[in-house]
Specification:
Helices cover 31% and strands 37% of the residues. It is of the alpha+beta class. The protein folds into two domains: 32 residues; 116 residues, Sandwich (Immunoglobulin-like), CATH 2.60.40.10. A hairpin with a 7-residue loop joins strand 3 and strand 4. The protein has a seven-stranded antiparallel β-sheet. The chain is elongated.
Length: 159
């Protein structure tokens, strides 16, 4: 009697297990806020030609943006974060305003706009980075009528 029930019940157990596993996986995927998010993605796609043109202007300018000090992530305090912006000859660019949109790679919906202040030859901002790991920074530098953009990813270390 038991042997007769095993074979018809086996496909039901396998299919039922698959359904339960799929329900668990979907619920985990929906609850996780770490999925990639790009605001106005359709508009970004429409303006792709403008993006390519800006990249060509960036290459022609030859400006170099480098991280001078990278903050160490701490839950208690904000730390200065400085960059250096130089032209193709290595001269410091004055009369330049710099801002960046920063977000952690795992939480791209939580974006922060950073407004850098000029401190000598550097551009600095103080911000409390609370999460270590890979961050993306989308810089925009303006100098008179010239716009320079740079997107870079950088790993911030946890304290």
């Amino acid at each position: 009697m038991l042997k007769k029930l095993v074979w018809p019940g086996l496909p039901i157990i396998i299919l039922g297990g698959g359904v339960i596993l799929n329900i668990v996986m979907v619920s985990l995927a929906v609850r996780d806020g770490g999925y990639q998010y790009e605001p106005n993605y359709y508009q970004k796609a429409i303006k792709w030609d403008e993006t390519i043109a800006q990249e060509k202007r960036n290459a022609a300018l030859g400006w170099k943006l480098t991280f001078v000090n990278v903050p160490v992530v701490s839950s208690s305090n904000a730390q200065p974060f400085c960059i250096s912006l130089k032209d193709k000859k290595g001269a410091v660019l004055d009369q330049t305003s710099v801002k960046a949109v920063a977000f952690h790679n795992a939480h791209s919906m939580q974006r922060k706009t950073l407004l850098f202040q000029r401190k000598g030859a550097l551009h600095c901002v103080t911000y409390p980075f609370k999460r270590g790991g890979l961050w993306e920074f989308r810089f925009t530098a303006k100098r008179i009528n010239t716009i320079f953009t740079n997107t870079t990813r950088h790993a911030l270390k946890q304290k």
